[in-house]
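[Automated response] Your request has been received and processed.

Submitted sequence:
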Amino acid sequence: MTKEKPIIIIGKSSHSKVIKEAALVSGRLIYKILDFKKINSRFLKTNKENFDFIVAIGDNKLRKIIFNKLKKKSCNFTKIIHPSAIISQSAKIKKGSFIAAGVIITNNVLISENCIINTGSRIDHNTSIGAHSHVAPGVKIAGRVTIGNLCFIGVGSIVRDGIKISNRVLLGAGAVAVSDLNENATYLGIPAKKQINFQNLKILLLGREKCKFSEKIFKYLKKNKINTTFLKTNNKNKNLILKKLKNFRKFNFDYLLSFRNLIVLKKTFLDKIKVASINFHPGPPDYRGIGCANFAIINQEKKYGCTTHLMDEKIDNGKILDVRYFNLKKNTNINILTKKTHILIFEMFLDFFEEVFKNRLSIKTLVKRNKNMKWSKKLYNRKQLNDLYKIDPKINKEKLNILLRASNYLSFKPYLEKNGKKFF
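Generated structure:
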C-alpha cells in the first residue's frame, strides 16, 4: 500500500479552509496552503516528489488553469473526501476532486478530475460530472444525468433524470433543469431557461412621434439595459429618417422593431438586420395597409385584432408570428377601436420580448406556431382612406352614422364637397 504524502493546498481562500478541515478529519497531513501566484518552476522542482496537491479555487476556469499547470509539471494530485460523505463503492472519483461533508453519491457515478462536489449535494446513479465542474451546496442531481466540463450547478438547484448539460453551462441557484441544456450559457428559473446577454444586444426601434406606447417600449428596452437606437417617425420626416439610416457608420443591429412606424423599408435595408425585423401591425391579417381600423368599422366587422410579423419589402406581408383578436361592439367608433389596438400591440410586444429575448424561443418556432395564419390579398392604400372621408350627398342616415363612427378621429373629419369647397 502506497503511503499517503502530506498535502499542499493551492489557493488561499475560504474554500481552502473547508478542504483543509475535511483533509484533517480524514487523517491527512497538511503541509502548506499556498497562494497560486507563488507557484513557480523552482518550487515545483523541489517539492513535487514529496507532496500531494489539490487546487482549492472555486472559479472553474482558474482552477482548471492551475490544475493543468501542475499536471504539466507531473505533480501528483490527491482527492479529498469528507468522512461524513456517503460514496458507493461502484462510484469513481478522479484525482484532484473534493467531496464535501454530507454529500451522497450512489452507484456507478463518475466524478471527473478537479471537480468540487459541495456540502449536502446528492448525485444519483449512472451520472457523470465533467472535469473542472463545481456542484454547489444542496444540489440534487437525478440518475443518468450527463454534465459537461467546466459547469457550475448552483445552490439548491435540481437536475431531472436523463438530462444532458453541455460544457461551460451555469445553472443558477434554485433552478430546475427539466430538459437538456445544449448551449454554453446561463440558465435560470423553474423550469430553467437560457438567459440572454442583453448587454451585447443592439436594437433599432422605429416608433412614432407623440406615441406614448412607442415611448413605453423604448423605456422598457432601456430598463432591461438593451442598447437601443430610437427613431421617431412622422408624416413630414420620412426622408430625414431614411437619410439617418443610410448614414449610420456601423449598421450592426440584431433586431429592428417597428411600432406604428410610418416608413416602408426596402429589402436592401432589411437584409442588414442580423436576426430579424419585426412589425407590430394594428390590424389582423385580413386588414393590410393603411386605415385598417376605419375600414373594419365601415365593413361592420364583429371582431378585430392585431398581428406581429416579420417584415419584408412588401407592406404587411411577412411571415406571421402572432395574431390576437377581440370582439367589436355594435356602436364602436374609431377612437375606441384605435385605443384598443394600441394597447393590444403593446401587450404583444411585451409577450414577444418575454418569449424571444428572455425565454429564447426561436423566431422559427413562432412562425411554425402560426403557419395557418395567412394575409389577405387586399391592401388598403392612402387614396382609399382619403376617399372614405368624402361624404356622398346621397348617403342614407344609417350609412352616415357608420361613416361618422369610422372616420371622426382627432383632426381627421369627414366632409361634404360642393363647388370645389370642403364642408367638414
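Summary generated for your ticket: The chain has three domains: 7-77, 79-195, 198-379. The chain has eleven helices and 33 strands.
If you did not submit this request, please reply to this message.
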